[in-house]
């Protein structure tokens, strides 16, 4: 046992039931001791799964659907404010804010948080306070069906490494020690004035362990040529998953709206990146599969809730597929969907 404070993962979710167990088990596997998840307006059983996981001590669940006076209307920012009002979260050793389609991929040592911190501090030659990991955007790898299989096993094709002409491909997510932080953000924390203005020094490094330009102390959410690095860590971002999974998540079903926007197909075309193969994260796959299986075996009710969520998504898929085939067979064909 260690006497340090926990490494804490913070996430916000809505209707992510089929993917929850993999995501939670993965982050525990790489060294996060505490996982705090806020959910809002879920229809697919996500809330019930999170409630159960909270009850058995696997995570902490915050029901985030209601808005109190003075809170942000946006559920994600509302959750961030609620997270950061918790002094036990602020007392964490390290904190990461990540979505359920984001998997921190550590390329050094045994692929754990300990290995990343050790390597980053060895590279910097001093204590590191903040580490930013640039997205690696993954496409559908040509997979059409919605399957109950680990995301990191199915989708192994991505955008090329390095900087990319699509600006949103170069966003980063940030692992940080809490002491300099005033407010949480999607991509990076907002720093307290004394750190933001450089009056109190801190060390912020990129995914190669090289120091970030000073301007990032006050602003910036993506990498540039002079700030990009990925030798030690990247953030795998599975933005579309399979064609059917994408349809389930993005389908709007509003017949009087722009047809492309009904399923946000432009998003699919932008982020369905399959240029190169990247299987680096799959070194964790055997342990991940074992962890998921053990969690289900230990908690049969959780396994049942998982299966019920899958059934909800499959029913939603069938409705969306039939309507899309009837109204826009051209888009259905581009997604690889058939009868």
From TrEMBL:
Signal peptide: none annotated. It is found in: Membrane. It holds the Pfam family Glyco_tranf_2_4. GO terms for cellular component: cytoplasm; membrane. GO terms for molecular function: glycosyltransferase activity. The keyword Transmembrane helix applies. It is a single-pass membrane protein. Keywords: Membrane, Transmembrane, Transmembrane helix. InterPro entries: Nucleotide-diphossugar_trans (IPR029044). This is Glycosyl transferase family 2. It comes from Roseovarius indicus.
């Amino acid at each position: 046992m260690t006497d340090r404070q926990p490494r804490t993962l913070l996430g916000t979710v809505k209707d992510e039931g089929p993917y929850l167990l993999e995501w939670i088990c993965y982050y525990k596997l790489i060294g996060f001791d505490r996982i705090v998840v806020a959910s809002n307006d879920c229809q697919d059983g996500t809330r019930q799964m999170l409630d159960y996981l909270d009850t058995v001590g696997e995570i902490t669940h915050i029901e985030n659907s209601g808005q109190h006076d003075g809170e942000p209307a946006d559920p994600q920012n509302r959750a961030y404010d609620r997270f950061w009002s918790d002094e036990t979260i602020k007392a964490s050793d390290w904190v990461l804010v990540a979505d359920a389609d984001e998997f921190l991929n550590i390329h050094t040592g045994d692929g754990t948080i300990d290995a990343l911190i050790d390597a980053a501090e060895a590279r910097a030659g001093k204590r590191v306070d903040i580490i930013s990991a640039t997205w690696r955007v993954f496409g559908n790898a040509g997979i059409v069906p919605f399957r109950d299989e680990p995301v990191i096993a199915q989708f192994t094709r991505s955008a090329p490494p390095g900087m990319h002409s699509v600006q949103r491909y170069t966003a980063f997510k940030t692992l940080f020690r809490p002491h300099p932080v005033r407010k949480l953000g999607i991509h990076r924390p907002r720093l307290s004035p004394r750190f933001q203005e450089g009056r109190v020094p801190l060390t912020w490094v990129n995914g190669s362990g090289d120091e970030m330009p000073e301007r990032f102390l006050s602003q910036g959410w993506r990498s540039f040529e002079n700030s990009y690095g990925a030798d030690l860590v990247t953030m795998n971002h599975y933005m579309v998953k399979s064609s059917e999974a994408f349809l389930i998540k993005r389908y709007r079903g509003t017949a009087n709206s722009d047809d492309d926007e009904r399923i946000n197909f432009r998003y699919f075309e932008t982020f369905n990146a399959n240029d190169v193969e990247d299987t680096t994260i799959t070194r964790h796959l055997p342990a991940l599969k074992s962890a998921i299986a053990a969690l289900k075996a230990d908690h049969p009710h959780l396994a049942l809730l998982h299966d019920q969520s899958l059934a909800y998504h499959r029913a939603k898929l069938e409705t969306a597929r039939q309507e899309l085939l009837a109204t826009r067979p051209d888009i259905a064909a581009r997604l690889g969907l058939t009868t």
